[in-house]
Amino acid sequence: MDPNLLYWKSQGQSFPSRLRIWFNLLDPTSLLSSDAEIQQARTLLGSGEKLNEKDDHAWSLSLSSVHADSGAALPLVFRPPALLPISAPLVVASFLPHSGVKPALFWQFLLQSYSAGFNFANRNSSSEQGHKTSLKQILLIAGSVAYATCAGAVPQIVLNRLGISSAPFQIFFRSILPIPLSAALASFNVFTVRSEESETGIQVFDSSGNPVGLSKAAGEKAVRDTALSRAVLLGTTAAVPNLLGLLLQRTRLFQRNSMLVAPVRHMSAAIVLGLMIPVSFSLFPQLGTIKKENLEEVLQAAAVDGQLFYHRGL
Question: pTM of the full predicted structure?
Answer without folding.
Answer: 0.92
